[in-house]
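Form 12-C: Joint structure prediction
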Amino acid sequence: MKKKIALFLSALMMFSLLAACGSTGASSSAAASGASTSGSSADATVLKVWVPPYAGGDAEYTDMDFWTDQFKEFEQENNCKVEVSIFPWTGYMQKITTGMNSGEGPDVVYIDTLYDLAAAGALEPLDSYFTQEEKDNYYYYDIGNVAGGQYVLPMMVGDASVLFCNMDILKEAGFDAPPANWDELIAYSKKIKEVRPDVYSFIQPWGNSSSKSSMMTSFLPYFWQAGGDFLDADGKPNLNSEAGKTTLNFLKSLQDEGIFDDTVVSVGDAPDLFRNGEAAMVMMGTGMAGSIDKAGINWDFSTLKGPDGQEGFWISGDSLAVAANSPHKELAVKALKYMTSAKVMDAFHEKLYAMTPLTKDGAYTENERFQKIYESEAEIANFHIWPGFENADSFYDILFKNIQSMYMGDLTPQQVIDNTMEEYNAAL
Amino acid sequence: MKKRGLTGRKQQAFYGILYILPSFVIILMFSIIPIILAIYFSFTKYDMYSPAEFIGLQNYEGVFKSSTFYSALWNTLKYVIVTVPVQTLLALLIAVFIADKMRGLYGALLKSTIFIPVIVSNIAAAAVWKVMLKTRGGIINNFLGLFGIGEVNWLGTKALAFLCICLVTIWKNVGYYMVIYYAGVMGIPKEQQEAALMDGASPAQRFWHVTVPNLRPITYMIVTLGIISSFQIFDIVYQLTGGGPGTSTITLAYMVYTYAFSNQKLGYASAIAVILLLFVLAIHWLQDKVFKER
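Section 2 - Result
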């Protein structure tokens, strides 16, 4: 009898195991039907949209609230149910990659690293879905032309990296205007350090858990200000160039001049330090202005110039794409157009995150102080999005760690360049 | 009779196979097949989208040329060498202390307190530690400030960042091993302790000559589990330091994750994973030999 019971339990376990392994499709379709009945009609198509969060961590009106509200009209018009998933920024691209590869991924997806996914054929070419009139209405349609095709539609363009300055602290140190170039930045920082030793005079987040976040505010703008093209003729990172050397020497000089101490490799959230009045000058995206205003900081900004008077801004070119394996491509493109329409983006800029308008019929909701850079053709010429090249995330990660090593005294600027290129090429 | 005997053995074998089949299927699906696939992918260029392309030993060549790999290997070995003995010894001492001196309510409370970190996820625990270890405004530095100790750059200096990873791991694991040891200590025959006492053995002698030998099988298991889990250290590193500063806390498992999921270099990541597997097997073989010889 005991043997029979044991045998029965064993068989039951096997059955459960096999059932669990084979239940993916069943469970997902169950989930989908559950979702669709709560929305439109019972047989509505389910469209999956994956995006990162833009509302602050403590915001009462969340990204999910926003997209749920916005998609109501779209769902009714198209008899579909839109399932929005918000994934945190940390590890965002990993989730996207594994999700898209699993076949359970999104139809519409927000991506910030365009090249690898486009080159791998994971994204649907979009050009044929757009009329010339629609294309002309977008300010930045061409930014989506990566890896030899129009694979993405830019959604979050802007957030240019500028030097924010706490003017109360600067005035205490005797400065009425933000520094205009690298030399002034060093001079200001040293003076502020003397007058206000309790705050960071100038700080960069070399302890950020996201190496890319540090790159976009603390490396790339300086590289462009040094007058370099980030990619060489073969489309590979041009780190071992005059601009690369000038940039790394400048970053090292910030430590040599006593502006950075050894805590720089543990500083994770520079904007937070600025908002709390603990840092006088921080390079960050213009989109931070709203939260800085809320914090009551008296601020101004500078479009910093390099040694030869060159300006250079990293700007966000984050985009929406349609997965190549989406079973609802037409509807997905429709959703993508809807999400980037003036109506939705104006609301997005107003309620979640201020950026420059995406379309010519959109309203300018970004802080008015930045209008002079976003509407100046001369400044726009200095805007750069993430350079697109193979295995870019790996490159930034290696470079980030080597710069940390430089600040710990283990590597010289030239060794940072050599080690980074060697490691990057080995991984390729 | 002969026929019935054979039938009985066959029947026994049949039932035996049936009983182990569920576990075998799980091990096959989640351990054996992934290992075989990892070995296969380690000889390919694979990014999850395009079909895997056979490239021979190129991934292994790339790994052995990478200075980060040697940093990760050295950090992983250091991590194993530091955490396994410390957590094993601490768990043993705490278990013996509670079993000898605190069997009542206080003992139960102490056991629960030490066990609580075990039930917290590594990522959540590391996130809390990260906040506590902040250089400016971190609770630990604020506390040290009360005694006139200046700001300590816990996660921004190589040695301290590594030490923090080890300490958080030990804090997380010691409760789990303590409970196993505690059960072992409670299972030691009282007669042996009493006989040693009557022979005039001191507490230290009783511990060394009675408790420790009786717990050898448990120690073997705890050291084995500790070594395997230490070689796999990933989440605490990921959350607490991201492998930095520089490459001072990067580990092999963290490197596997980075190349597989951040950089979509599945083939390269698989080569590192296979090397990691070989290391774990070699160390386990060595450990097995040492324990058996003794």
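Section 3 - Comments
The first helix of chain A runs from residue 2 to 21. The CA atoms of residues 248 and 290 of chain A lie 31 Å apart.
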